[in-house]
Amino acid sequence: MHLHFFVIALLGLFAVICSLGAVSPFKFIEPLNKINGVAAGSICTIELPPGKRINIIGIEATVTKAAGGGGVYSIPQPSDIIGLIQLKVGGKPQRTRLASELFGYTGLNALEDGKLGGTVQYWQAGSVINAKPVIIGSSDDVAIQTSGGGGSNGNLAAAAATKAIFFLPIVFTEPYRKEYTQTESLGLVQAFADGSSIGLVTVELSIPNNGGASPAFSAWGITAWFEYDELVAPAGSTVFLEKEYRHAVQYAAPGDIEVGTQLYNRDALSRVSLLTAADIINRVVVKQGSRILRDISNVRSQQILTARDFNEKAILMNRFDLEFDLNDDPNSAPLLSPSLPLSIVATLATANDATKNITVLSSYYGPLD
Q1: Which of 16, 51, 195, 247 has the most other CB atoms within 10 Å of its CB?
Q2: pLDDT digits (tens, 9 = 90+) for 311-337
Q3: Domains of the chain, residue spans
Q4: pLDDT tens digits, 238-290
């Protein structure tokens, strides 16, 4: 079964890449114009044009935070304009993440490549503060927020309303993979050679209802663009995608807890991140049947990720990251099935969080759901 899955995926990769007779298709960049529902407390829906193979979707999200009193800086965050993000194909969720999980200096995007954490540009009193956007949460961002300067020389002024424009990438062809063919294999093909399609592709963004917050938020805005090429899949072939899901597991005390029972028993499991509010997971043991796939401490996991060229600056103590396709090939990750489920036992060193939840962020490579 594992070999069959691998062969299908490999054949699909080469069929798609070679379908135009080239392995370096031209990349187009255009605005996305079908955007509806941009309002506080609403679901904003972005519709992708059919027939294009999607490489990157760029979200440009704007929100203004009112001035706070007492010399406080008003600094919007991505989560002030976007909560849950869902990529859907034919109405079925294929990726689900919070903006706060994906973006920023220590987000999951940045763990793979710091440049994918998203950037921000600030405005006050109708003037741009930093003409060049900076990585969200980076030292450059912090300097703009804290160095003073009255809003006139590249630093925010205190007690002033601030508009932030966030540039947030949703990545398909993962540029951090070392093999070009692996990068190209991960684009989302929408069309087949016979003219059929996978169905309507949309991105849904939940916009928080925070107009009544203190300080209040206003002027919510969403625009978007995408990078694409014109590769199509052979008629009758299977379209694969790097899919993302999330679920929560509650705990009550320090010690061992099983967090893998809600994993999808299908597809190749690319990565799992275990996120708490602040409690520390100091060890994880991963088994498939009787076979141990990982028995690793938090510190050793960080060392291995750094040695494997992950971004060490994005590693968090309260997020235990497990990468399973370390050799750069998504087909090399462990394949799950009802007969070969995965057990993930996390050992909590502390249990001091007010809300004792482990958010399990899982990624799979496989056919569209």
Answers
A1: 16
A2: 999 999 999 999 998 877 778 889 999
A3: 25-171+187-229, 240-367
A4: 999 999 999 999 999 999 999 999 999 999 999 999 999 999 999 999 999 99
- Radius of gyration of the chain measured on its C-alpha atoms: 21
pTM beyond cutoff 0.85: yes
Residue 203 forms beta bridges with which residues?
Answer: 46, 87
Residue of 100, 50, 53 lying closest to 205 (CA atoms): 100
| 75: pLDDT strictly greater than 90 | yes
* pLDDT band of 17, cuts 50, 70, 90: very low
Q: Which residue is listed with tokens 């760029």? A: 58
At residue 353, the pLDDT reads 98
Q: What is the three-class DSSP state of 148? A: coil
Six token digits for residue 216:
């209040």
d(CA 233, CA 158): 54
Residues 6+ apart with CB under 8 A from 8: 238
Q: Is 136 exposed, middle or buried (0-12, 13-18, 19+ CB in 10 A)?
A: buried
- Residue 108: enclosing H or E segment and its boundaries? helix 108-112
DSSP code per residue over 11-78: HHHHHHHHTTT-SSPPPEEEEE-EEE--STTSEEEEEPPTTPEEEEEEEEEEEEEPPPSTT------G
Helix (H, G, I), strand (E, B) or coil at 246: strand
The correct answer on CATH 3.40.50.20 for the domain covering 240-367 is no
DSSP 301: H
Contacts of residue 148, defined as CB under 8 A and 6 or more positions apart, other chains included, come to 155
Tell me the C-alpha distance between 77 and 74, whole Å.
10
Does 240-367 match 25-171+187-229 at the fold level? yes
The answer to whether domain 25-171+187-229 has CATH 3.30.2160.10 is no
CA–CA distance from 138 to each of 57, 216, 234 (Å)?
22, 25, 43
Residue 206 burial by CB count (10 A; 0-12/13-18/19+): exposed, middle or buried? middle
Cα 310 from Cα 332, distance rounded (Å): 18
Cα dihedral 7, 179, 87, 250 in deg (nearest 10): 90
Other C-beta atoms lying within 10 Å of the C-beta of residue 362: 25
Q: Are 101 and 107 contacting, i.e. CB atoms less than 8 angstroms apart? A: yes
Omega before residue 175 within 30° of 0, cis: no
